[in-house]
Amino acid sequence: MAVRHVLVDSGFCQNIGDKAMLENTLSALLERTNWILHIVPKASGELPEMSSDRVLRAPSSACLSKVLHWRLNSEAMFLLAALYWTGLAVKICRLFVASACHAKYGWHLVRNPEYRDWIEFVERTNAYWVVGGGYMNDMGRKAMVEKMLIALLFSWRAKPIVCSGQSIGPLDKLSSRLVMGILMRRATLVSLRERESYRLLDKYRFNMDHVHVTSDDALTCNFRQTMPKRNVITLNIRSGFYAECSERDFAKYASFIVLLHERWPNAKIYFLPIALGQDDSDIVSAERVISLLPEKVAASVGICTEADGVADLIAFLQTSFLSIGFSYHFCLFSLIAEVPTLALYAEAYYRHKNVGLMNMFGCGEWCCDLMQTTPEDLFNAACRLYETHDPSSVRAHFQGMEQKWNDFLMRAIDTVENWS
Q1: Vertex 161, ends 159 and 163: CA angle to 5°?
Q2: Given pLDDT bands bounded at 50, 70 and 90, which one contains residue 205?
Q3: Cβ count within 10 A of residue 413
């Protein structure tokens, strides 16, 4: 059988969780197939560090992003929104005609060499694989539309499209649901990382025959060793692109840390950053919280910047006896490390993700709304969690999700291999 060439796309950016999802999926595909994997580079041009010569750079998707340069409120300005979406539809039609004519007659109907590269690239590629993440929602519409355009190119050529480990929603805006509907209709196989996403898709009556609930694409990451416990509490706070914490949220979190310090005065408290981007940094959020702490408490609080990969991160988490945080992947890696984990959220985006994650691990009661609770309520919840944590239950849920992820992976591989 001929070697398959597969385009792999993701939400890859300066985020340990995003890197873990992409690198784990690539490693699994390289181990189980002889495919050549072409990675879509992001705006920074950065690609994951893979030692295989079967991982190559795909053409830049920047040309597809150009149709998305939209800065107005499309929900409030109906006429302008209609003009925008009409223009987008025209561009999609032009792309379709150009792709069809090139496939049948070899004609080049587009002048832009970047568009031409994409059309030719899709012709010689066998499948499109979209790695998981939390960008399929109202806040990530730009990423959604870009992936929709690529999916359309593959769909028009009758080639399989796999979406793995996705988190869908919130989808409150009509435009988001329209784009999501196109993606769902074109996809061959879809796996979701929590049941909340499945219920949301079912609510909007999307076709669910090819949709499976498995787990996050980073769940099966290999970590090197088991670390001994130390007197450490690990924290995380997110305030970036999709999740914005107010000053009141920062102050409430700082008050909560003071209570933790009073309960465990000899414990060292570390913030573990997951997002490390210039405009989306957990380090900046952590520094803001630390600046609000009394000097005595702040002396026992630090920021861990040495963990630059998932193995280092899980190893550090294993040393702690309690983890409390906002980031989805901070909570996921804490659960994998079998640490008592309290997940927090302050708005709809992280509520959807973290409630879904904790329910998948059977820990739904340990997910709290920072806006609706007091520092004392959070502290009492953390103490109850510490006293009642059952690692065997978490481990059993992990093993079930691990099996589902591997089953879906093999099903998707078989689909691509046997596609004609």
Answers
A1: 175
A2: confident
A3: 20
Give tens-digit pLDDT for 168-177.
999 998 888 9
Instruction: Provide the angle, in degrees to the nearest 10, between the axes of the packed helices 195-203 and 348-360.
Output: 120
Contact 380, 402 (CB under 8 A): no
**pLDDT, tens digit, for every residue of 74-96?**
444 455 556 666 766 776 676 67
- Let me know: does 336 contact 398? Beta carbons within 8 Å: yes
Q: In CATH terms, are 5-221+400-417 and 232-389 the same topology?
A: yes
> Which superfamily does 232-389 belong to?
Glycogen Phosphorylase B; (3.40.50.2000)
- The residue extents of the domains of the chain are 5-221+400-417, 232-389
356 with 345: CB under 8 angstroms? no
Predicted TM-score of the model (pTM): 0.91
- 234 in Cβ contact with 323 (< 8 Å): yes
Q: Chain centroid to CA 217: how far?
A: 9
Between 194 and 240, the higher pLDDT residue: 194
- The mean predicted confidence, pLDDT, of the chain is 87
pLDDT at 358: 97
* Distance in angstroms (rounded) separating the CA atoms of residues 358 and 26: 26
Give which of 220, 136, 203 is closest to 410, Cα–Cα: 220
Decide yes or no: CATH 3.40.50.2000 for domain 5-221+400-417: yes
Distance CA 53, CA 139 (A): 35
Q: Which residues lie across from 241 on neighbouring strands?
A: none
Q: CA angle at residue 206 from 205 to 209, to 5 degrees?
A: 115
